[in-house]
Amino acid sequence: MPTPPCTDPVVLNLWHPLSAVAETAAGQDHTTTLLEEQIGYAWSPDAGARAWRTGATQHQLPTLVRYGYIWTSLGTPPKDLFSIPEYDEPDRRNMNASTIGVHVSAPRAIENFLDMAHFPFVHTDVLGSEPHTEVVEYDVDVSAERDEVLATRCRMFQPKASASSSAGAEVEYVYRVPHPYCSILYKTSGDDPGRKDVIAVFLQPVDQEHVRAHLLLSVLDDAHEDKEIRNFQQSIFGQDKPILENQFPKRLPLDPRSETPIRADKSAVAYRRWLSGKGITYGVIPAGR
Amino acid sequence: MTRTQPGLPGRAWHPVASSADVVLRHVFQGRLLGRELAVWRADDGYVNVWENRCLHRGVRLSIAVNDGRELKCQYHGWRYSNRTAECTYIPAHPADAPARTICNRTFPVVERHGLVWTTLEHDRPEDLPVLPERGSQLPLRAVTVAAPAADVVGALRSYDADDDLRLASESDLLLRFDGASGPGLTLLVQPSDATTCVVRGVLHGVDEADPDVSRLTLLRLHNRALNRLRARVESEVGPLEPGNDEPELELVPEELAELPPATRPGRSASLRVRVERKWSAGVDVAGFALAPLTGHLPVAQPGAHVDVHLPNGCVRQYSVVNAPGEDDRYVLGVKREPESRGGSACLHDTVREGDVLALSEPRNNFPLRRDAEHTLLVAGGIGVTPLLAMAQTLAHHGLDHELHYFAQTEDHLAFHDRLAALGDSVRRHCGLDVAATTARLREILAGHAPGRQVYLCGPGPMIEAAREIAAECGWPVEKVHFEYFQNGQEIDKDSSFEVDLARSCLTVQVPPGQTILEAVREAGVTMPSSCEQGACGTCIARVIEGEPVHQDVYLNEAEKASGEAIMTCVSRSASPRLVLDL
């Protein structure tokens, strides 16, 4: 067997998303690319999910079905995926908002997801607006026990925070990065200020410089149709895509001296250190290469 | 398949764009030896060639906004100045003047023969080829060829658009042709990367008077010929792997890689400027335009001041009046003080056009926040200088503001041209006595609402009055920003105490008659300072322990009450021991 294109053991042993279950025609075989390899997969309500390297149909890859997606791994994955307890709350609407290809590395896309300072400039008059550009101090913690980056008390003035909001408000966010290529954000719900909407991005690394971004929504919204909620998130993502595709280098540089962080980038600094600590080499430019 | 690495050819300077590519408010993306370049012209005509990458998150600057004076990165709105590529504003932290010198990588530029030239090697002298200047020159449309430079040069040797050209000489990616009857031609091969080139041509000796040969005819003729050549070369060379010659990216300086801000420079006079122009900017106000002797001046952000080292040995602080993008000189306004201790009198009477002065780099302890919905600027007399810089910035960004300018008479209003350019946002208040000034300030400051902020600069009593009125009108202390010209208070230097420098692991005694700043410097610790009278804020230090006695006019009441910071040039300690973060 030829050597697999990805040799990073950390990344090989991760669970990676392949497709939204709701968009997978039951009982049919599909193919996609993961870590530069052609992967076949299939799903049915009775048999669940299966995945294999094309050309090696006999050898089944491990699979999971979580949060509405089919996941697989090319190595030896952990028993389970990170937890998102809100997903199981009965009154939430869970859906795949979109799966969009982006010509960028997965870690660059995660940093963009964690970033608030770009709202007024990239998501103008929706998630932010000039002159309300300040990113006030927030807290970042790397939990050793849960092995994830956590940013809390992230506040930003937003003209229109979600499909269901009509006026501007200061919105509070919490970000989690429980997986090198996955992140979850919690933001004050327009419908129920006591609870939070959940938006997660699961990045499928096609290769070191291409991803398919799967966007999960788990929201409290009774007023809007699925289509409206999806359109809102898709238009947001459409604004990020050209920025991400114009970042250079496309792989995330982990040397602290390769770019210039400011206090607003605290979460990104923690994320880069966390990746360095894991010894990740795929999708990044390791420090001191 | 031939694969020639371009390496570094003999000539260091290469064309990277045509002058016609750098049109108004556009950013052109160029490429040289594998390195991407952002090429743009500011409204003052200067052409910039920069690394095509914002230092913050690596986003291409060729997708940035060229507002005529600065490039604004699309991702986070960071602004970079014309000429020096210094970052002038970081919107995520509107209260901070970028204290660290964040500067994008720039390359030297020459614009000649209708082309923009640059070199990636900084220490290489200008070695531009000399092109014949006979008759008028006409740059051709550039043609990109997917082939290594050597192959393209080889094919160009037999270039002939109309049987009229003859190869006269060849050197360093340049071929010169003589025309038997028509214009001559120079063809230049710009090595974009290992497998791509751009062919640029300049016709010389074009006879503008000849009605048979229009410029358009010539351009079309050569465009067709170059396209034929491209097709031929590309089919001979065959498809190439894209050039895998990504250049090494330069690392940012170490102090930029860490989150905490670096220390600022001490009292220095690192800049040399020539008085380019001196004029009467208003009654008793001399205007000075100071141009660099060599190179570029560091950018002065709105609110910044410079220390001017005068021929008589005095050092004085003056705010920089410059508008955004006005980067080729500093403009200062100096009021003649009747009781001048030698500063303003020297500048008014002694310093002349052509004189050379030493300046510190600009320092900004009065930074302008640009995240307010409305900004009030209230100036008294010569206090207008920093506020003019702010008003011009706010106007340039399209942010709502008013500049209220109090002066003795109309003739005392300084910088008429700049005031006129600001239009309706300027409100002039002339000839008011103390009572009338107070009443007018009350009217101006009456309308406090969230999203508003005020900046005050002027004589001490006026700032005092305005701050009191603002407090009465319900303005929160943090929305009222002010800068005094000088500290009018009597400074008490009688106490003695001990200062622990936590980071330097030193303890120093401060005896009566000495300042903390002097004692710290004596102990060998470098400290920045500027006015040294408690007005400018440069020598600020963080207090870890102890009870400061504030004698400055820089900190506001809330900051003084918190006891977390101290101006080391004038303030002292009430406790026997003070621990500073130095």
From TrEMBL, chain A:
Key words of the record: Dioxygenase, Oxidoreductase
InterPro entries per the UniProt record, alphabetical: Cholesterol_7-desaturase (IPR050584), VanA_C_cat (IPR044043)
MF (Gene Ontology): dioxygenase activity
Keyword Oxidoreductase: yes
Record carries keyword Oxidoreductase: yes
Record-annotated Vanillate O-demethylase oxygenase-like C-terminal catalytic domain positions: 104-276
Signal peptide: none
Name under which the protein is recorded: Aromatic ring-hydroxylating dioxygenase subunit alpha
Organism from which the protein derives: Nocardioides antri
Lineage start: Bacteria, Bacillati, Actinomycetota, Actinomycetes, Propionibacteriales
Automatic annotation (TrEMBL), chain B:
Required cofactor(s): FAD; FMN
Domain annotation FAD-binding FR-type: ranges: 266-369
Stretches assigned to the 2Fe-2S ferredoxin-type domain: 497-582
GO molecular function: 2 iron, 2 sulfur cluster binding; metal ion binding; monooxygenase activity; oxidoreductase activity, acting on paired donors, with incorporation or reduction of molecular oxygen
Key words of the record: 2Fe-2S, Flavoprotein, FMN, Iron, Iron-sulfur, Metal-binding, Oxidoreductase
Residues covered by the Rieske domain: 13-118
Keyword field contains Oxidoreductase: yes
Listed Gene3D superfamilies: 3.10.20.30, Nucleotide-binding domain of ferredoxin-NADP reductase (FNR) module (3.40.50.80), Rieske [2Fe-2S] iron-sulphur domain (2.102.10.10), Translation factors (2.40.30.10)
CDD domains: fer2, PDR_like, Rieske_RO_Alpha_N
Family matches, as InterPro entries: 2Fe-2S_ferredoxin-like_sf (IPR036010), 2Fe-2S_ferredoxin-type (IPR001041), 2Fe2S_fd_BS (IPR006058), Beta-grasp_dom_sf (IPR012675), DmmA-like_N (IPR054582), FAD-bd_FR_type (IPR017927), FNR_nucleotide-bd (IPR039261), MRET (IPR050415)
SUPFAM superfamilies found in the cross-reference section: 2Fe-2S ferredoxin-like, Ferredoxin reductase-like, C-terminal NADP-linked domain, ISP domain, Riboflavin synthase domain-like
Pfam families the UniProt entry points to: DmmA-like_N, Fer2, Rieske
Top-level lineage group: Bacteria
Name of the protein described by the UniProt record: Rieske 2Fe-2S domain-containing protein
Organism in which the protein naturally occurs: Nocardioides antri
